[in-house]
Amino acid sequence: MNSPANRTFYIETFGCQMNAHDSEKVIGTLEHEGYRRVETEEDAGLILYNTCSIRDKAEQKVFHRLNEYKRMQGEGKQFAVLGCVAQQEGEKIFERAPYVSLVSGSASYRNLPQMLDRLQAGEQRITGLDDRQTDETFDTEFTARSNPHRGYITIIEGCDKFCSYCVVPYTRGKERSRTSESILAEARRMADQGYTDIQLLGQNVNSYRDPSLRMSFAEVLAAVAALPGIRRVRFTTSHPRDFTRDIVEAIDTIPAICDHVHLPVQSGSSAVLKAMQREYTREWYLERISWIKNATRDISMTTDIIVGFPGETDDDFEQTMSLLDVAGYDAVYAFAYSPRPNTPAITMEDSIPEEVKSERLQRLLTAQRERQRVSYSRHQGQIMDVMVEGYNRQRGQITGRSSQNKTVNFTTTQPILPALGSYCQVRVTATYPNSLVAEAVSVR
Ligand code: SAH
Ligand code: SF4
Ligand code: F3S
Prior knowledge:
Catalytic activity: N(6)-dimethylallyladenosine(37) in tRNA + (sulfur carrier)-SH + AH2 + 2 S-adenosyl-L-methionine = 2-methylsulfanyl-N(6)-dimethylallyladenosine(37) in tRNA + (sulfur carrier)-H + 5'-deoxyadenosine + L-methionine + A + S-adenosyl-L-homocysteine + 2 H(+)
Mean pLDDT: 95
Distance between the termini: 50 Å
Largest sheet: 6 strands, parallel
Bound molecules: S-adenosyl-L-homocysteine, iron/sulfur cluster, FE3-S4 cluster
Radius of gyration: 23 Å
CATH superfamily of one domain: Methylthiotransferase, N-terminal domain
Main location: cytoplasm
CATH topology of one domain: Rossmann fold
CATH architecture of one domain: 3-Layer(aba) Sandwich
Strand order of the largest sheet: 2-1-3-4-5-6
Protein name: tRNA-2-methylthio-N(6)-dimethylallyladenosine synthase
CATH class of one domain: Alpha Beta
Strand content: 15-25%
Number of helices: 13
Number of strands: 19
Subcellular location: Cytoplasm
Structural class: alpha/beta
Organism: Terriglobus aquaticus
């Protein structure tokens, strides 16, 4: 049992970057409350599980893991389920897993200190599930960032778009932005601590609306990029509906804003987009792609695609395939449509058989891999800055990341390896569909 003097916790995180960053804030909050993080469930008095329910498989993983935890029930451990499955399933989790004492969705994390007090008092069924209509965001000064050079800042929480297939508006609650002052204050604190690479996060990061009405999203990007010490500003995920030209202009004129846009299209067919309630057409999306392509900088584009949405015909799917050529993506995250609870699409007819979904998925991924082989080859011979992220001693390589978010494995002739988080200039000597090989030109 967790004695007050030796409170320990173990946390496991699934899902998107928002969830990963939420966990950093949860860890910071727990540590501030006197808990110590441990690396295994065995050593922990409190086990937390930060969950994802975007597709059925992700959700099943959670219940699988909870069943595994069952064997530790008798050991006096406490269990908490956080995140999107927690919000979606709510108190039903207590029925499926009676040894769980805390269930909380992300919209309630700002109440975590109070929930932890109740947990310590031995309360059994604590919930944080009623905050989805809140205007408040989870801002905390106790964020335990896992990387000392590159860090996330959530600038907008929740989602109001209600795409017909998606759980997020139900699991993360209403869309709410932080003030630009609070974002910049956090970015400045990070810069002072030595961070050089900041990634602004939101389910739809570019739907950002400053509650203090001072700055547009593009202006926030520019303001973070202008902070002394900041060398790279990234942002994800952008929604086509709110993707404005000034974002491209900001990237084009400010070198510290990374030359990469993740712009999920979901489908290349306007009919499917309509059924998905994406509220844009193929043409609308292509116009935004053309802005990006017409920029002076080579801006890398990546996307998300759902195949096998109810009613998707062969012709609809071919229209999605044709987008791969038009857009020239550097990465495509493609998923077979997964029917989700509470969403309107779950009642739609014309569902696509699983075999067809997986056949379309395979075709798409194979085609994209070939295109990536070509698109990555444009970097052959280029000189670029990479941030050092790790070492592969076996291969004698240093692993880094380019401004476009590409993995670059490089070698150096210097006797001393460049430090983690430092930037090196490299020349690309070989290209693959998912990574670049390079040699260091000079170490700065
Ligand atoms: N807010 C972002 C996406 C967030 S979810 C946007 O609108 O673009 C991440 C990705 O998961 C989505 O882009 C979509 O491709 C995928 N996804 C969401 N719901 C899904 C479902 N029911 N089945 C399959 N994939 C899904
Ligand atoms: Fe889901 Fe659509 Fe919101 Fe993205 S915009 S999180 S896909 S509802
Ligand atoms: Fe998953 Fe929730 Fe993120 S459903 S993808 S953890 S917003």
